[in-house]
Amino acid sequence: MTVKIDYEKCCWKDGACTSCSCKGACKGCVEACPTGALERKKMIEVDDDKCIDCGACVAACEHDAICLC
Ligand code: SF4
Ligand code: SF4
């Protein structure tokens, strides 16, 4: 399995939160990840080499925008 992000549903677009203007301060997938595999850049990026398939990011996402599939 790999982490896949649905960039249509994801609220982080073009380096900013389009949901609440939190600038990434809200607790989402990036903060939930225990290995630092996710990063807020222009879009959310996944480092597959760091991912351990734990599913914490999926549970943390309130927008149903990330899956382990
Ligand atoms: S599955 Fe776990 S390790 Fe992989 S990106 Fe999500 S939170 Fe991080
Ligand atoms: S928690 Fe969900 S909506 Fe928020 S940045 Fe991560 S994938 Fe996108």
3D architecture notes:
- This protein has 2 helices and 6 strands; from the N terminus they run E-E-E-H-E-E-H-E.
- It has 69 residues and is α+β, with helices and mostly antiparallel strands.
- The protein has one domain: Alpha-Beta Plaits, CATH 3.30.70.
- A two-stranded antiparallel ribbon has the order 1-6. Strands 2-3 form a two-stranded antiparallel ribbon.
- Strand 4 and strand 5 form a beta hairpin.
- It starts with a strand and ends with a strand.
- The mean pLDDT is 91.
- The structure holds iron/sulfur cluster (2 copies).
- One iron/sulfur cluster (SF4) binds next to loops.
- One iron/sulfur cluster binds next to loops.
